[in-house]
Structures are given as C-alpha cells and as structure tokens.
Amino acid sequence: MENHKTNWKPVLILGPLLVVLVALVIIFFTGGEREEVRRLEEFSVAKGQPAPGESAGSRTVTLFFLSDDDDLLHRESREIVAGPSAADEAERALAELVKGSEKNLVSPLPAETRIRQVFITKEGVAYVDFGREITEKFSYGSSSELAAIFAVVDTLTFNFKSVKKVAILVEGAEKETLGGHVDLTQPFLPDYSLVAK
Amino acid sequence: MDKIRRAPRSRLLIFPLFIAMLSLAAFPQAAGEPGVQRMKKVVIDAGHGGIETGAKGKLGNLEKDVTLSIALKLKALIEKNMAFQVVLTRDRDMDVSVETRSAIANNQKADVFISIHTNGSRLKAAEGSETFFLSTGETTDEETRRLAYLENNSSRLEDHMDKTSEQDVKMILWDMAQTAYIRQSSRLAEMIQAELNSLLGTRNRGIKQAPFKILTGVACPAVLIEAAFISNPGEERKLASERFQMSVAEAIYRGLAKYLQVYQ
User: Fold this and answer.
1) Nearest by CB to B126, which of A71, A107, A188?
2) Which positions in chain A touch B126 (Cβ < 8 Å)?
3) Tens digit of pLDDT per residue, chain A (197 long)?
4) B4 φ, ψ to 5°?
5) DSSP states of B31-43 as a string?
6) Under a CB-based contact definition with an 8 Å cutoff, are residues B182 and B134 in contact?
7) B56 vs A139, A142, A177: nearest CB
8) Residues A30, A129: Cα–Cα separation, whole Å
9) How large is the angle between the packed helices B242-263 and B182-200, nearest 10 degrees?
C-alpha cells in the first residue's frame, strides 16, 4: 500500500507541469502567427499611404546637381507626380536626378543609372536599390563618389520627412563601395557640407 | 659550508627570474624580441589596383598606376631617412580587397597608415589636393553601432568559421577600430596637407572627413591623401610626371616626419 501511494507522487507533480507545457506550446505558436500578421499590415501601411501634407497631383522636390564653378552640389527644383507613397515619390525624384539638370549643372550619377526600387522602413531608413550600372558605368574618384552618394542621400532626406537615413544597395545586395572609397555598409545621415550655401 | 653557500646562490637565481617574469607580464609585446625595441612601422597603401583602376584620366592615365608609383617613392624616402620599417599593401599592379588592406596594417601592428589616391570628379575643372581622415557618423552611440554591426555580420561570420576562422573574426572586430584614433589621424592629416600645399602648388582643398571604407578598420592613426585630380587634364599631366610624383612623396614624408616628432 505504501509503495502504491508513493507511485502517485510523480504523477501529481508532472501532471500539472505537462498541462502548463502544452499551454505554453499553444501560446507560442498562435502568439507567433498573430505577431507576423500584424507586422505585414504595418509594412503595407508604411508603403501605401501618402506622406501627410502631400496631396495627389504634383509636388515640387529639390534635387542636387554639381556645378563646374565650385564643384559643390547646387539645388534645383523639379515638379514630379505626387503619391501614392513617399517611396514612389522618392523613386521619381531620383529618376530626375539621373536624367540631369535643366540649368547646365552636372548630374553626379552616370546617365545609365537604373533605380530598381526604393523602400522606406518605419524607422526612417530609405533603402535605394540601384542597378549595376551605377558602379560599372563610371570610374569614381573620391570626389565623384562622395558627390554621387550624397546627392542621393541629401535629395531623399531633404524632400521626405519620413527619411532620416539612406542606405544604398546595388542589384538588391549590400556592396562595400561604389568605386573603392566610400563605405556603403552603413546607412548615411544627410551631409549638406557638399551643398553650396 | 656547502649548505651555506648554496642557499644564497639559488636565491640569486630566483631574483632575476622573478624580474623577468614581471617584465613579461607588464610588456607582453616585447616578449617575442627580448631586449630589442620593436621597430616602428608605417603601412603605405597604394590606392586601387588590378581590375579596380580607380579614377581614369582623359589622357589615359589610371589612378592605380600613379598611386603605386608614389607609394614606392615614399617607401624609399622613409627607409632612407628614418629608422622605420615600411610595409606596402601592394608593391605591384594587383587586386587587394579593402578589408585585406586594413588587415595588413593591423596584422603588422602598424604605427601609422597612409593611403595614397589621386582624385576624380565628373567636372573637368575640379582641381587641388586634400587629405581625409575618417568621419564616424554617430560616434556617441559607439557600442550600439558595434553591436548592430556584429549582428548584421553574424551570418557572414558563421560562413567563414570553418575555414580560416580566426582571421575573419579579427577582421570583423576591427571594423570599428579607427574610431579610437580620430584625433591623432586629424593631426596627421593637417601636417601632411600643409606640406602638400607648400610643395605641390595645387589648390588647397583642406583636410576633410569622409566615411572611407579603407580607414574604418585600421587600428592606428590613418589618413587618405587625394593628391590632385587625375580627371583634370592639366593635373593629370602633372600626376603622370616623375617629378610631381616625387614631390607628392616628399610632401607626405615631411608631414609624417613632423607628426612623428610630436607623437612619438
């Protein structure tokens, strides 16, 4: 009899533990799914909604081009089609930057440059994914590499409030540099020191 | 009698042994070469190389060739006039990755790192010389940046683990190394820029900070020199000449010598 009683002890301890374990497993899986769904929703909101204060139609953006007079970046205004998202507008602004100046200024990007995609995260990092032409169609020196990068960075941070930093990708992947100088592995804060006053 | 003599002798032997152990603990670097002070090292980096040509001149000169030529001249100058050992990141036309360049500097325990470049602009008229040291972005949050870096690179870290794991780990940890040397690097840049101005007669573009990949991982004072613009035909002609290349080497040498007087 005594032996029989002691045999029940582990069951009494392990039973509730098993129930708790099963409950935890259920919470783990269902909880995880719910979180994933929520994150996807946030993504689509971030990309689909026009930035506040930007109505449909067109909007003016400021682009940065090089000038032969002082080899600094100079501002030039341009009308682009507005919306629907800040990322769409950012893509159009960069396309204008590649297309070139209307005032005899020089684009800091190779004419063949292709913009594959712009994506803006909730945290305010704009990822600009360029085609390989941006590295292959020009042999950069430090000055031209800095100008190319900060014309892109400053154009996005200057015109889009939601953009705090800019990361540059090439063909969808992280690249060390465009031409052997400037580190592309960290996102850039704007640097207006290359811009004429 | 014998007993009395032996005791002090063994004590005499223990004492120097004790001193030696103490000094080994205090100066682990000197352990390999007892008695000899380690010769100071300058690592010179000739920008670009191999398929990576760097900037191209309109007359056909390539940045990688000019930088190598200047680097070799600078090496000869330093070895002739200073008790310094010089290590080049490349001594001929070859591909060397940016990471390998800073790894060479760190493996060699460089005391100074000098990267030589010639500049390039989309504007034909751009001219002059400038000296860069690293800009670090948000230096205030160094630890966060370091952690973020390690996190971002953990997959790359694992990829390399089975092969030459130790070296790769070191390379990755070095990525933030330069941040500790920013002030000395800026002094070195100032001193070299002053000599470039007086010896070359090129436009003074000053000292600047930029996030150059080559500088981020170097664990000693480090600068990147942009001697004139190879994209400017007038300056390209100069850069192609032995005389001008020699002046650039001389200017860097003088700036380095002044820096070493203060910081050695």
Assistant:
1) A71
2) 71, 143
3) 445 555 777 777 788 888 888 887 777 666 554 444 444 434 433 444 445 544 569 999 999 999 988 889 999 999 999 989 999 999 999 999 999 999 999 999 999 999 999 999 999 999 999 999 999 999 999 999 999 999 999 999 999 999 999 999 999 999 999 999 999 999 999 989 889 98
4) -65, -35
5) GGSTTSPPPPEEE
6) yes
7) A139
8) 35
9) 140
Would you call B125 and A71 a contact, using CB atoms and an 8 Å cutoff? yes
- Provide the shortest C-alpha distance from residue B75 to chain A (in Å): 23
Report the Cα A56 to chain-centroid distance in Å: 23
ipTM of the shown complex: 0.73
| Set of chain A residues whose Cβ sits within 8 Å of the Cβ of B123 | 66-68, 71, 106
Task: Assess contact for A131 and A114: CB atoms under 8 A.
Answer: yes
**Contact check, Cβ <8 Å, B123/A68:** yes
Number of Cβ within a 10 Å radius of residue A47: 16
CA–CA separation, B71 vs B249, rounded Å? 7
